[in-house]
Amino acid sequence: MKIDSPRLITFACSHYCEKARWALDWHGISFEEIGWPVGLHEILAKRHGATATTVPILLDGDDVIQGSSSIIDWAERRSNERSRILTVAGSRAIEQRADDVIGVHVRRLYFARMLPKYPGWAKPGLFQNMSTSHHAIGNVMWPVAWRVVMRRYDVTPNAAAESRAILDSELDWIGDQLADNRQYLVGDRFSRADLTVASMFGAFACSEELPGFNNVTFPDELVADAARWKSHPVMRWVAEQYEAHRSPMRLAA
Known about the structure:
The protein is an alpha+beta fold.
């Protein structure tokens, strides 16, 4: 059985969820965004038939599509505008690197700056779009959940410095791909490579415009990281991708 409006399960501030959200918006696919509490999301994912416990998850009737890349694939199969297809030659390789390296270390840096000293500050970005009951459950689970998150994502005393150094290297690598002043990472049009890299770095390039960061307070150290990268050509390129290719109505929501 199909429903008219698929449900996108997210942690609102997650860059992987932003990637899925952007892809659905890009293809003009209406959806309802729903938040699940950290920790409880693992049980709910299995209950809905997902094979893993991560978000984003797209629920379309009986279909369960898990992971941002799979959601892009699903959206492209549903798209009526072939000119907006995001998959072009070479785009998946950069997407995979961005997911596996950039995304992993953006998340680790964020948690390393936020959770050890300011775990409560992370809640507004993670608790959006929840039902009243799920919000209450999330509050009860949070004192344990944030410690589990730290262990799961290797948030050690050296995590911030390690992840920042890796991101420095990745920014330079992306910069090398754009060194000839090309507008896009592969080919001559916007692709899933551009969408993914922009999503992964979006919180550092233009967080005030992104869904998921409403009412989020950032620690000074994270603000300093963003300021340090602000003038990097890749961060300027990310902001340009958002301005040119992201729905302003969705961003303002």
